[in-house]
Design goal:
The structure holds three protein chains of three kinds. By secondary structure, chain A is an alpha/beta fold. Chain A folds into two domains: about 230 residues, Response regulator (Rossmann fold), CATH 3.40.50.2300; about 150 residues, Response regulator (Rossmann fold). Chain A is about 40% helix and about 20% strand. In chain A, helix 6 crosses helix 7 and helix 14 packs across helix 15. The longest helix of chain A is centred in the first third of the chain and has 17 residues. Chain B folds into two domains: about 210 residues, no CATH class; about 250 residues, Rossmann fold (3-Layer(aba) Sandwich), CATH 3.40.50. Chain B has 23 helices and 14 strands. Classes of the chains: A alpha/beta, B alpha/beta, C mainly alpha. Chains A and C meet through helix 2, helix 8, helix 9 and helix 10 of A and helix 1, helix 4, helix 10 and helix 11 of C.
Amino acid sequence: MREYVSSRAATRREVLRLGSALAAGTLSGASGLAFAQRGDVIRVGAARPMTGMFASSFAPLYVGMKIAVEEINASGGLLGRPLEIVEADDESSPAKEPAAMRKLLDGGAQAVLGPVGSSHALAAVATTGPAKVIHASGGFTEELADGTKYPYHYQYTYNAGQQGDAVVRFALETLKLRKVGVLHEATGFGESAAASTVRNLKKRGAEAVGVEVYPLNATDLKVYVGKLRAAGAEVLVLWNSAAQGMVLTAAALQSMRWFPPLLGGNGMYSNAVIDGADPEVLKNAYATLIRSMTYSGKEQPAARQLAYVKKVLTYPEAKTWEINAAISPFYDFLHMLKLVVDSDKRYDGERVKKAFDATRNYAGMIGNISFSPENHCALDAEQVVLVSVASVRDPRSLGVFRERA
Amino acid sequence: MDQTPALNPTTPPAAAHATAWHRHAALGWTLLLVALALPLAAPGTFTLFLATQAGAMMLVAIGLNVLTGYAGLVSLGHGALVALGSYTTALLMVDAHWSFWSAALAGMAVASVSGLVMALPALRLSSWYFALVTLTFSQVVTDLAVEWRGLTHGFSGVVGIPPPSIAGRPLTPAEVYVTVALCVVLAFIVVRRLVASRFGRSMVAARDNPLAASASGISLWRIKLFAFFVSALLAGLAGAFFAVQKTVITPEDFGTDFSIFFLLMIVVGGLGRLWGPVVGTLIFFLLPELLGPLQSWRVLVYGVALLTLMLYAPHGVAGMTLWRRWRAAAPPRDAPAARDLDPPRAALALHIDAIAKQFDGVVALECCSLVAQPGATHALVGPNGSGKTTTLNVVSGFIAADSGRVRLGDHDLAGRPAHAIARLGVGRTFQTPKLLGEMSVLDNVRLGGAAAERATALEVALGLPRSARDARDGTAAALQLLRFVGLDARADDAAGALPHGQQRLVEIARALASRPSLLLLDEPAAGLSMDELDRLGTLIESIAARGTTVLIVEHHLELIARISRSVTVLDRGRVLAAGTPDEVFRHPDVERAYMGREGGRPTMKRRSS
Amino acid sequence: MVLDLVVSGLTAGSLYGLVAVGFNILYRPTKVFNFAQGDLVMLGAMGAALLMARAHWHWTFALLAACAAVGALAWIEERVAVTTVLARSSSGTAWIITTLAVSMIIANLVGKLLGAEPIIVPAPWPLSTDALPIAGASVSSYQLALIALALVLVVAIERMYRSLWGKAALAVAEDRDAALLRGIDPAAISRWSWALGGAFAALTGYMAAPVLSASTTLGGALLLKGFAAAAIGGLGSNRGALIAGWIIGLTEASAALLLSPGYQNAVMLLVVLTVLLVRPGGIVSSLEARTV
């Protein structure tokens, strides 16, 4: 497996490619969003939960934003002016997103990042879309990658569709097990990830032996896990976003003394489980992760990512969810924005969109980023790999990286 | 109870007062228009968006205030009704391409039907159980919004909801705001009219004193359903606006917090006050914006602020006593034309045949029979525990007898609910006066006449002539009754401020408001001074003289002797003696049972307790 | 499989019942529903979990400390948020706001300080959450102990209400003024009831932690069902609360087996409605007698 080490030379190449895309592309006349604000500060709006129970859980994702802002301003800012972040509290509630978005736009934001959460992102895009504002959210749902539906939104993370694909590939090709049981939480994410899993199984000629849905406030998952076991599942796939799902699943497996391979997504990285769960469960637990944040038996994590992660770990709010901080979608978004704006010598939303849409193999921190007018997902299925959850205990991981399975 | 100062004796002449009122009204309207227009002048889109959202939420709050504030039914499920209105509107607009206006009407219809369904358990459950049921109901609605994904698009929700349009032209956000503001103003006016009418009085009575309500002929379940209906209608409309504003609605928009939020708004604003929901909504929408830099500690500041607010304004902001100074003095009334007490609608005799009632082994009534003729007073006396009040309760329908018959004229009363019996022409008073303490004396009496008013809710809401006529006639009739009992000078005072004896008279006036054929009085003389006793006696005699059948339960034998034509003595549930006062009081059994066993000669006049 | 279901249902149900008992203890002398009850339970669980996980206290001391702390907090809540508003107007609904405000404050503070990350709490030795060696079933010793303990606690609480202090509390619940006339101090009774209720909530949280893991979302999960158990069981009746909790737990477990999550709350609603419409005062008839 090749390392995606990005040398200075490669970066320069990327800049040139973007710049030529801008120059050579058929750019229509200036849209209403041509902010030739030479004297002004460039503002990017950030929607995040500042109050409510999830405030500190989502804070790590914004560490990536902070680091990017620091780096950008240290190297001259955007158009020679400092980059400023305008924040709005969305209280982690989809119902509050339209108001938060409007507040940001009224506050002078020319691009928006956040919120985190699929339903939150969908609610927010409903406002930024018509306003034609460049938007990078932290939503995992496949819909958000649709460039025709959401032309101004860019997904700087893998989505549920790719996760389903990765998990199925792993089960069928690596583990060589065909009887897959799916357990998902009753949320938009859980549903779409489960649907993707089932879809991908079918595509490869296999079938899910059972799909169980659990409510968010469930107190015990033994019933559901038991049903999947009774249906003959050899592999258990868990799609959860709230850590509680992982905790209860581990508890159920322990209690039933059943230790099938457990596959899933980011919800499996809860440190609480690593510390408290039965090692038998964790031995076989694998989750999806972006390739750039992984290492293997022989290969180290890439130097660039290593440096980045070390920086991330210096931020106190990244505590307990360092991995989320490291894979934050906002770092690369801001850097790409700077690249485009600086080479364009102005901020023009339409031109940014054109440039983004023409991006191919930009060496981002999260991996090789490519967009097209129809596909606004930064990563492709190849960059989604399964890693061993328990490898966080390995000193090489620094608490962030994981070993590829 | 709070003491309201009596009406200022030097009220200005009617004409000058009217001009002053008009000036105030003009000022009020101008201020209102300015306040409403402010968001339109603000720069950017955020303020207008927020104001429109606040307006929609205000609609819900106004409706919920009718239900929880006035009718006293705590609903934690209004979020579900908003959700139903939203989803109906959204789905009809997106999937079936209806226009906003018809979709919104459909949303209101769906919400009100569901509101009625949600209301049915309320009719049998007491308030906190009901809160639980509504809370669970709201979760069920959210769950089903996910489960029935074929219809509702599941978690992805309904996207791309277009803005409302008139004749093909979509409305701008400013125009949407104006529409919402208009709806809020209209809703406020309609609710104000309803509250001032018999509907409002009935709701408050059902909330504060259900016995008084039933005794006045108000069907508790009907008024509760009505309150539900109104609040659900407004919630549905708000849901429609919510949908077009957000342009995307998902099941997660309507969680439990959403429902509790509305309750918070109206309690902070002031439950059961007209301006409560308006103030409450404004506080909740404006406060976060004013906090600015303290954003991330906002909820903490909130919590502390709420705690402090409730200490100083336990009845909410609109319920604070300092507003009383601003309350418009009641308009001066012309003295009612001197008119004698109206005769009852029909002169009917009461026949009680052998009723029996047992409570868990205690025999309250064994075989009680009596006859009371119209135009006369019949007394029911007996030692404590002899079944007198039970008899009254059976006749008025608050208790069902185990056996026996009760007839009023040709009507068989047995088995009918209390409010139906009241409507047949039975009025009653209770041992302790059951008045609505915070309502004026006049309104308390008008409560009794609720059954006679004819205007329907729609007519009241639209302010049509029949409702104005009801108001006029009702007020005149009530004033007349107050004059009859001698309390017309205190018509506008809070009923709770009156001394005990006067409260009793107000209750009698209320009982007479429906011109009943039968008047039941339960120990009206208790606690009255000698003077008041005398006047009470005269009062009862005049009532009987008009043709009403009066059945009075009393301990005051002198009063009885003076005013009654016939007396029945009960002892331990059975009739001991019956006849004229003279006959009965000399009856040896009566003397023995009621007045002490020493040789049948009363050793001491019994004082009433 | 059936045994699993029954035990799971009874375990969850016992927790709901205990939350309901907490409600009852606070409700009796003050007629106030503590909207912050779920947060008190959560504090108990989090407090004990932190002491055990970070400070490595033995579970008995952690539990005692948590109960004392939450009891004290409930005592403060009563003085600040309840008595003061009740004194202003006994028939008011201001306490809805103040208890909600307290809930907001607690949830927010804890959320800010600790985040939503759960803490796994092991069952106290010698109990464990591993399945017992019973053929075909995965029932743990902790689950059985929890159910038994819930029963014992309810019996103890009922015993307590038969003591002199308990009777005084009942008297205050029945008629505050009459109790006052008999020399009982309703204010002191209220305060101590709330402190007791708080400690009880903490105990409930601690008991729930090995099963549910201690996290800031613990309160929300239990609050609603606890409220339902209190209402169905008959407000004020503790044995009713436990029985109702079991009914809810078992219904939930069977619904999980047979229905998709979308219908589970609907089933809950049906159960609640059926019980309340058949017996309006709750299973064991409540303090809320109907007055005629």
